[in-house]
Structure formats: structure tokens, C-alpha cells
């Protein structure tokens, strides 16, 4: 899709500064908003749009992110009502039905319906089956991203003799250099903070005089 709405850089910057929800001010949520923009652009492209305005893209992305956050909160609430800490697929389906209750869906009047045959789920299945597949432009890592972790190794693996009654299959103690480096960094941090506090006290005394 093409950017057909903005004519200069100043207007682009102004559109980026338009109303954002408070929860998306954090850097950790910028990635979620960027993904939402790509998803919205792909959905618009799949239904026939060929260009967009940044203000419209920002607004639709904001609505998408708010919808997903509300769905997560609703699913978590349903799980808590059932005495569970984590949500399952039925909590999500029930959350989708609650969010769609204002518009209505097939089978909404049947209070004894099975969630597995929910009309909301059927609508999603039909949309996914009929819509053209628009793959993401880049490979996205699975969430959560698991990094390689190097363990300390047991006493037996490091061929070290454990002290006292410690079994050899337990993890060995870190090298003494590790403790030395951590203590040095901690001391430097404390000295800097103490220096800052001393400077603030001096400034307060000067103000009082």
C-alpha cells in the first residue's frame, strides 16, 4: 500500500503525535503498536484499499490494540470467576461473545449453547477460510523468545569436589571473580548515589541560607 495522505514531513510528525492511549507510551509497547499497524494495513489491502492516510492508520491501529487488550482483560476476568489463574480457549471465546454482544451474533439468545459451537467462532473461521492469505513481510520470532542459557554445571560435570555434605549433582558455585565483579559494581553504584545525596544536601543548605 502507498502513503497517499501526507504531503510533508511536519504533517507526518504531527500525525504520529496524535492521541495515543497512556498504556502505549512505554517503549515495550511500541513493538505491539508497530505490529498492529502492519496488520491493519494488510487487512485494508486485502479488502481492496490501495493507499492510506497516517491518521487513519494510527486510529485503526489504536482501536485494534485496545480491542486485544480488552479481550485479554475480559478473558482473565472470566478465568478468575471460575477460580483459575490462567485463561483458556473457552475464556477467550466467552470474551469474544461479550465484546460482540452489542452487535449480536448467531446463537446469542441460547444461554445453554456450547462455546465450542459459538457463532463468533464460526464467523472467524469463515473469514479465515474465505480471506486471501497475506503473509507478513518479515519472519517474526515465536513468543516468548527463548535465548540459550548456559548453566553453571554440576560439581560432577566440572570435576570439582563439593564441600561438606553437598551432593555432586548440584550446580557448582560461581567463580570468585563473579562475586568480586558484582561487589565492585555495587560499591561504585552506592558511591555515586551517596555523592548525589551529598550534593543535594549542600544545595538545600545553600537555599536555606
From TrEMBL:
Domain Bromodomain associated: 29-105
Domain of life of the organism encoding this protein: Eukaryota
Gene Ontology molecular function: protein heterodimerization activity
Main localization of the protein described in the UniProt heading: nucleus
Places the protein is found: Nucleus
Segments passing through the bilayer: none
Keywords assigned by UniProt, alphabetized: Nucleus, Transcription, Transcription regulation
Record carries keyword Aminoacyl-tRNA synthetase: no
Entry-linked InterPro entries: BTP (IPR006565), Histone-fold (IPR009072), TAF8 (IPR037818)
Keyword field contains Nucleus: yes
One GO CC term, this protein: transcription factor TFIID complex
Classification via CDD domains: HFD_SF
Name of the protein described by the UniProt record: Bromodomain associated domain-containing protein
Amino acid at each position: 500500500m502507498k502513503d497517499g495522505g501526507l504531503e510533508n514531513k511536519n504533517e507526518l510528525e504531527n500525525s504520529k503525535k496524535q492521541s495515543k492511549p497512556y498504556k502505549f507510551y512505554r517503549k515495550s509497547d511500541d513493538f505491539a503498536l508497530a505490529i498492529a499497524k502492519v496488520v491493519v494495513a494488510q487487512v485494508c489491502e486485502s479488502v481492496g484499499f490501495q493507499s492510506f492516510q497516517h491518521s487513519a492508520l494510527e486510529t485503526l491501529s489504536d482501536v485494534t490494540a485496545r480491542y486485544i487488550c480488552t479481550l485479554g482483560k475480559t478473558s482473565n476476568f472470566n478465568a478468575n470467576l471460575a477460580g483459575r489463574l490462567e485463561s483458556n480457549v473457552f475464556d477467550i471465546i466467552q470474551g469474544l461473545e461479550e465484546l460482540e454482544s452489542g452487535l449480536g451474533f448467531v446463537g446469542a439468545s441460547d444461554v445453554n449453547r456450547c462455546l465450542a459451537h459459538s457463532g463468533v467462532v464460526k464467523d472467524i473461521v469463515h473469514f479465515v477460510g474465505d480471506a486471501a492469505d497475506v503473509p507478513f513481510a518479515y519472519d517474526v520470532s515465536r513468543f516468548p523468545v527463548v535465548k540459550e542459557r548456559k548453566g553453571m554445571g554440576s560439581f560432577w560435570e566440572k570435576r570439582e569436589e563439593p564441600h561438606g555434605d553437598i551432593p555432586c549433582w548440584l550446580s557448582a558455585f560461581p567463580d570468585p571473580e563473579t562475586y568480586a565483579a558484582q561487589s565492585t559494581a555495587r560499591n561504585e553504584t552506592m558511591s555515586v548515589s551517596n555523592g548525589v545525596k551529598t550534593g543535594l544536601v549542600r544545595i538545600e543548605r545553600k537555599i536555606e541560607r
